[in-house]
Amino acid sequence: FLVEDTRHIIKEAAQKSCFVCYKMGASITCCETGCDRTFHLPCAPDGECVTQYFGAYRSFCWEHRPQQAVQARPSQDNTCSICLDTVENEISYKTMGCPACQDARFHRQCIQRLALHAGIGFRCPCCLNQEPFMREMLTMGIRLSKRPPSWENVQEVGPLGQRHGRCDAGTCLCPGGREHAEEEGPWQLRLCNSCAAEGTHRHCSSLGNSTYSWECNTC
């Protein structure tokens, strides 16, 4: 029966076009009653669609996806709490917020990368709330990992909220060692722009003085 069901699903998908790229073979249909929009999973981000990676694994198009009910930001500091780049003024598909502290804002891509790196330690990067925050992120389509945090594989985890403070380059060239860091110059420590769980001295990764963004090999 499973083989026949699979064949039936493939046959149906082959006849449906993706509303994002307009190509055939769209196997995902919006779960909203009466909505017949279909799309490919890789096209979901471009179409601002949401797939919930828990329970029934429901998917929604841009019109019927769940919306966050985050209130106005108290600090009005429109920067991503993870990468520190600018975010939109309003909550949207690309700009998300913490339901607990109502203050943290982050890009969807940034919080998705953090979720995969943090694993079972995933929580709000600002207020460190975990349970309500995690439920909200799942509802909004963020995929979580059940693995231990990725940084536990390379070093002992410090207190929550402690900034990463060592060079993780394959070969550290700093005379003072991996944990030596200066305010500027070749031995200034730069953290990964996506996960902030790994770092490098500028000189160890050949980063110029004008380079402000760096990503580790994992990201």
Backbone structural class: alpha+beta
Biggest sheet, strands in spatial order? 1-2
Number of domains: 3
Strand content: 5-15%
Shape: elongated
As a percent range, the share of helical residues equals 10-25%
CATH architecture of the largest domain: 2-Layer Sandwich
Number of helices: 3
GO molecular function: ligase activity; zinc ion binding
Keywords: Ligase, Metal-binding, Zinc, Zinc-finger
InterPro entries: EPHD (IPR034732), PHD-type_Zinc_Finger (IPR051188), PHD_PHF7/G2E3-like (IPR059102), Znf_FYVE_PHD (IPR011011), Znf_RING (IPR001841), Znf_RING/FYVE/PHD (IPR013083)
Domain PHD-type: 1-65
Describe the structure.
With 219 residues, the protein is of the alpha+beta class. The protein folds into 3 domains: 3-60, Herpes Virus-1, CATH 3.30.40; 68-149, Herpes Virus-1 (2-Layer Sandwich), CATH 3.30.40; 179-207, no CATH class. The chain contains 3 helices and 8 strands. The chain has helices spanning 2-14, 108-118, 131-139, and strands spanning 28-29, 38-39, 50-51, 59-60, 95-97, 105-107, 189-191, 199-201. The strands form 4 sheets. Strands 1-2 form a two-stranded antiparallel sheet. It has a two-stranded antiparallel ribbon with strand order 3-4. A two-stranded antiparallel sheet has the order 5-6. β7 and β8 (199-201) form a beta hairpin. The chain is elongated and about 65 Å long. Mean pLDDT is 84; it is low at 154-160.
Question: What would the keywords be for this entry?
Answer:
219 residues; Herpes Virus-1; alpha+beta; 3 domains; 8 strands
